Amino acid sequence: MAGKEDLKLLGLPLSPFVVSVRMALDMKGVSYEYVDEDLNNKSELLLKSNPVHKKVPVLIHNGKPICESLVILQYVDELFAGRSILPTDPYERATARFWAAFAGDKLFPAWYGVVTAQAEEERAEKVKETLAAIEHMEVAFAKCSGGNAFFGGDSIGYVDVVLGSFLFWFEAVRRVDGLEIINASKTPLLAAWAERFGGSVEAKEAVPVTKADLAVQYISRFRAPAAAAAKLASSE
């Protein structure tokens, strides 16, 4: 695209949705300013830019805000030259949009419940929902990849970016809970895909290994009050 672009991304380091947008911008070779937000003390810029949901990511392009990660990904793909993120074929494009939306609508709430559930019964239910959603993504990979390395074919595409942005959180859950969300015996296609994705240049730049370490710390801090309360109750 001709001309100088003023791009600013409002985000959080551990948000998979923010990670997906950063990966897409990097894939396009676009320069942008990244601004960390504090959701406990939201900036005026965030509140003004996303008055409906008041959450990140928000991409501000020449003063105009674009909200919601999937919308931003499509905007970036349509606006900037370079490698395509979404498929060019209309049917494949629609299919990719469906599975990316599925990951956001079904997989994310289930996985987030695993991380944040206070009661073991609730966590067990969220684990069940998460594994069911991942099994659907296994089927999706078989259909979308056409026997190639990625959802996007020979190279990383739209669904790869969306699902791949969750992988460091999946690793954190494995370390903390011993839960393998992507399991080589139950989801072998996704397990092989995750290895390829993790070894890609795109992933190494957008999702450094340290992100999983930080996610482990987040889970531990989040669960600490509940663990302390349970310990106190058991001692009474």
UniProtKB/TrEMBL annotation:
Belongs to the GST superfamily. Tau family. GO terms for cellular component: cytosol. It comes from Miscanthus lutarioriparius. It catalyses: RX + glutathione = an S-substituted glutathione + a halide anion + H(+). It is found in: Cytoplasm, Cytosol. Is involved in the conjugation of reduced glutathione to a wide number of exogenous and endogenous hydrophobic electrophiles. One of its GO terms (biological process) is glutathione metabolic process. One of its GO terms (molecular function) is glutathione transferase activity. It comes from the Eukaryota. This is Glutathione S-transferase. Residues 5-84 form the GST N-terminal domain. Keywords: Cytoplasm, Transferase. It is an enzyme of class 2 (transferase). Residues 89-222 form the GST C-terminal domain. Its main location: cytoplasm. Its EC number is 2.5.1.18.
